[in-house]
Amino acid sequence: MTAATRSPSAHPVLRSIACLLCGALFALCTWQVLARGQLFRWDEELSDGMRAAAPPRAAAELLSDIGNMTVALPVLAAAMVLALWLTRGRGWRPVLCYASAMVVMALIVAGVKSWTDRTGPMGGGGFYPSGHAATTTVALGGALLLVAAWLSRALLVVAWAGVVVLSLGNGLGLVWRGYHWPLDVAASWCLSVLLLCSAAALARRGPPRTSRRTPRRASPPAASSPPPSDSSA
Description:
Layout: H1 12-35, H2 38-52, H3 57-64, H4 69-86, H5 92-116, H6 131-147, H7 153-176, H8 182-204
Helix pairs in contact: 1-8, 3-7, 4-6, 5-6, 5-8, 6-7, 6-8, 7-8
């Protein structure tokens, strides 16, 4: 069975629904931060409760560090190299798509941070959305999507569970340590899913194929059978 036939990509309709839903949630979170709405106030109350129930500092700090560039980006880079090696250099399109998703994520996060300029739990500005949470999800999710076609179904389920657990743990660590509000992290998750779904759709859309049909050769005319001889002559 080839890698292409084992590709576990989601149905295009489900992918579109995920993109629309996550885009709408990201817009809602951004609006609430700008307007300081009810969701904004609930967010600060939830943060206080989460920090009060935080685990030991060392564990929370370790989880928050997953989103560091020196941790998440090497994972994505290794998956890119592996994907190119497995495809003998022909898999450049997915590599380019997921690399672009990371770049677009960084640009959007920087732009929205500057626009909203939300104060962090410990002071300062520019905390919405969380760059660490987005980096973790896009890097780990993109890395898995790059090599997913070569994994068995059981291993793929375990790998996706690992990505979800690490992304969730990173987000919790950021809130527990007071580096971000919960809404900062949730918005970054929505943005990350939106970018990963878009990158997956572009990665599967190959270049247009040109038709190279060889002209059919004219079949030789069938040999005509000789006329029957007149034996009565």
